[in-house]
Amino acid sequence: MSRRKIIAGNWKMNKTPQQARELIRTLLPLVETDEADVVFCVPFVDIPAAVEEVSGTNVQIGAQNMYFEDAGAFTGEISPEMLWELGVEYVIIGHSERRQYFHETDEDINKKLLMAFEYDLIPIVCVGETLEQREAGETLSWIRSQIEGAFEEVPEDLARDTVIAYEPIWAIGTGKTATSEQAEEVCGYIRQVIGELYGPETADVIRIQYGGSVNAGNAAELFSMPDIDGGLVGGASLKEDFGKIVNYK
Ligand code: PGA
To answer: Under CATH, what is the fold of the domain 5-246?
Structure first.
């Protein structure tokens, strides 16, 4: 089975709508490819401008979060329907920054995952361990619990369309990339857990990204590992280097 690679930029809290337009215009010619799905996950307020700029190109737009209710008294939140109406195709769910600073739990992430599907948004679900957990030998059991929590009651036909991003917290924004062997070990393990939950066919088709200090110099090695189907890229997605990451071959 050859899975189509997916390379997504996570812009985090960077770029105003006008700056987003400028960056997208710079990046578009550099990220042209037939070989991978390319996604820009932009701040909420940049979405209308971003969707307009990428129209007719190979790039799709993602959000970085959403709430798990349709509508109602949830001041400050954004619903999946709002994203859907703007033409958003992907949504990052459970990024470690949201888990850490905004106290999102596996239960919240599970609710968001189920809700994303209701509005045809493809979830990019993030999992990853801290340095302390890695050093204590708890990485795999932690990742298993995050995957089992996120996918609770998610039916097989939806699970297979989900994208999982393995992002070791110690590698995010630190310049400290996991080695390709470390990244492959955990991505392979995630595939094994998905296989236990849904069977070998789903494990074979589900796409698993690596994220954490991916750059133009390390993308080729990481993305050529058997269980790594692309990347979720933070810092380097705001630079022309993102073109080199997308066209890593
Ligand atoms: P980074 O961020 O590439 O800047 O390490 C990755 C992420 O948080 O998704």
So the answer is: TIM Barrel (3.20.20)
